[in-house]
Amino acid sequence: MSPLNISEDELHAYVDDVLAPPRRAEIEAWLAESPEDAERVRAYQRQNQALKALFNPLLAEPLPEKLQALAVQALNAPGVENLAGDALGAPSLFSRWSLQRIAAGLLIAVFGGVAGWLGHGQYQSAERLAQTVPLSRQAAVAHVVYSPDARRPVEVAADQEEALVKWLSKRLGSPVSPPKLGALGYELVGGRLLPGNAGPVAQFMYQDASGQRMTLYVTTENANKPETGFRFAREGEVNVFYWIDGKFGYALSASIAKGELAKVATAVYDQLEAKK
Question: Which domains are present in the chain?
Answer without folding.
Answer: 8-56 (no CATH), 64-130 (no CATH), 135-274 (3.30.200.100)
